[in-house]
Specification:
alpha/beta, 243 residues
Length: 243
Amino acid sequence: MTLLRDADLAAAFDHAARSYDALVAANLGYHAHLRRSVRRLGLPDRGRGLRVLDLGCGTGASTAALAAVLPRARITAVDASAGMLERAAAKTWPDGVTFTRAPAEGLAEAGVQGPFDAVFAAYLFRNVSDPDAVLATVRALLAPGGRVGVHEYALGGRRADRAVWTLVCRGIVQPVAIMLGDGELYRHLWRSVVEFDTAGRFAQRLRAAGFDRVRCLPLPGWQTGIAHTFVARRARTEHEEAR
């Protein structure tokens, strides 16, 4: 199969929205790993006075992680899938959390404006057609010195990493998804990971996009070597450093 992109991918997520939370709940450590990645941003004072963008929020799992770790932040959550966003917005949220429908490539058109103190993106970059363009958008939305956190399936580069990922997808995830009528999306999931950057390559991509202090941190459990947190800072220009 070819990878799903843009409108086709959003439509597949729309269809899967009804069962997405149930599948996520079956993934041991899913929510704890998201909270771990948010903590790795190292934002102070539980987010007091900070603006944070949750880019690709889905049904709100990443938004919940941000709200748990940074309860004093103002969180703007966006997603391209109307179905996923409807599920997310229907949940109970603290004050300061808002939802907007927008693709990662069209934030300005949807009225999403910076500066943000941090941008968090979970399971997003392997799904966009042009990761470098989205990273450029993220950089433009960040305040000078602002932080980006990317929580992503990016294989470590060993053959064993790909083998474990394939075993989990084909032995567990895809059979369940097929029963639910969402086989196409979860076949895309497997392929999107094996064709995406390795962890080292994505860290290089961040540096090339104008981010510094780039760190690539593994996640624990069966996802070691499969999922990573990437944390970086928007590099300051010479003009910003001089101010």
